[in-house]
Amino acid sequence: MSSLERYRQVLAQYIDPYLTGDLFSNGIVDCLEEQDSSVTLGLVYPYANNGSVATLKLELGELLRSAGASEVNIDIDFVVQPAVQKSQVDSLSGVKNILAISSGKGGVGKSTTTVNLALALVAEGARVGILDADIYGPSQGMMLGIKPGTRPEPLGGDKMLPIEALGLVSMSIAYMVDETTPMVWRGPMASGAIIQMVNQTQWGELDYLLIDMPPGTGDIHLTLSQKVPISAAVVVTTPQDIALLDAKRGIEMFAKVDIPVLGIIENMSVHICSNCGHHEHIFGSGGAQQLSSQYGCEVLGSLPLDINIRTMTDSGRPCVVADENGDIALSYREIARTVGAKLHLLNGQANAGPSLSIVED
């Protein structure tokens, strides 16, 4: 057996924690070369994973050395693959994947989850945007620390640029009106405003556009599902029975409009006392697991009921950027990698990775 075959065998033992199968079956290995027992390994992942690079280099380096490599050089990159769009919207032509972040009811932390997930994807290396589709209660501007009165920069015609903050771009009805102005609009007016924001905003090149959906199931949900090529939906819930009941309605709604549900994020899953560290399931436990089993979708992650999530987000610096090495930020980044990988698998492109080049000198 050649040395390259040994290296290939040990590398095939490594299973990516976010994808199914090994590095080769997922098309991640871009090159594997050896020169005088010095091995060069090139990997190209289909999802943003900056947070995994150090661990990957350590684990894969140990595998290659166990097979006889004296020196190991590992280069890791990623290229997010685009979803197959069902329709073409000019302003979204540069957006690879569109995720609807939804909840069956208000008060479960959907908007907070959206902004932290978006920032976690940015931290992993992705280009990200947020569309605040919650016309009646827009909050993304405040969460991103955008000053009241900030307006989008107009371009030629009726086009405009999204507002950039904390490494991502966003658009919200809050950027068009005074912060105290209520949106006293009937459903068709609200839906029309959303579609105008989608069509007139020049989103540019994005790996992911996250849509912060309004709570419930209504006109805006139906309009977006018909007019925007949404790749998949993520449902946010708490373990509380009434929240889970409404989450079921949200999952059923996406099924009716033929949008796959990527998975469930369980928010406020457990309260950790800041004084004594006691864990208490205030809203119950196990609800998201039951929901995922019932509908055949995955629990993408669970987040605690923690005052820091609220205070940091209210201050305009969500915990992913305000406490980037904290446990909560790392949890969001774990969810971000999971979302990216599962979306890639859902897109059916798991085997459409780079070609493998094996060279032996």
Secondary-structure blueprint:
Elements: H1 3-11, E1 29-35, E2 38-45, H2 53-66, E3 71-78, E4 95-102, H3 110-123, E5 128-132, H4 140-143, E6 163-165, E7 168-172, H5 187-200, E8 206-212, H6 219-227, E9 232-237, H7 241-256, E10 261-266, E11 271-272, E12 279-280, H8 287-295, E13 298-302, H9 307-314, H10 319-322, H11 327-346, E14 357-360
Parallel strand pairs: 1-14, 2-3, 4-8, 4-9, 5-7, 5-8, 9-10, 10-13
Antiparallel strand pairs: 1-2, 6-7, 11-12
Helix pairs in contact: 3-11, 5-6, 7-8
Mean pLDDT: 89
In CATH, the architecture of the largest domain is 3-Layer(aba) Sandwich
Strand order of the largest sheet: 6-7-5-8-4-9-10-13
Rg on CA atoms, Å: 22 Å
Helicity range: 25-40%
Provide the structure class.
Answer: alpha/beta
User: What distance separates the N and C termini?
Assistant: 15 Å
- Largest sheet data: 8 strands, mixed
CATH topology of the largest domain: Rossmann fold
Number of domains: 2
Question: How many strand units?
Answer: 14
Helix/strand order: HEEHEEHEHEEHEHEHEEEHEHHHE
Percentage of residues in DSSP E strands: 15-25%
Spell out the CATH superfamily of the largest domain.
Answer: P-loop containing nucleotide triphosphate hydrolases
The shape is globular
What is the number of helices?
11
Low-confidence stretches: 349-361
